[in-house]
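Its record is set out here:
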Amino acid sequence: MKIKLLLLLAAASILASSGQILLKLGADRARSLIQFINPRIILGLLLYGVSTAIWIYALSFARLNVIYAFTTLTFVLVYIFSYFILKEALNVYGIAGILFVLSGLYLILFRGSV
């Protein structure tokens, strides 16, 4: 896999997971529709939108099954960011799950795309 594609997909995953964290922060304690219109949610949506644009660009020169496998990295990053930023609990099963997910991503990207 080309380094440019890997960097693009890593950037997209970082942007998407950062957007998700911002969406969570913006949604906390919001109870009425108008409270959901706030800077954190707007920035989260913007980051998510830029991430989507990068995914679409990446689709123009790589296979969908390879590109889509990278969505698992977004899951991993959200799990990790949730721990460090939101102070959500991590446990042994979650860490094991992350290791399995990363193993699967490695197999698809570097062994399955031959």
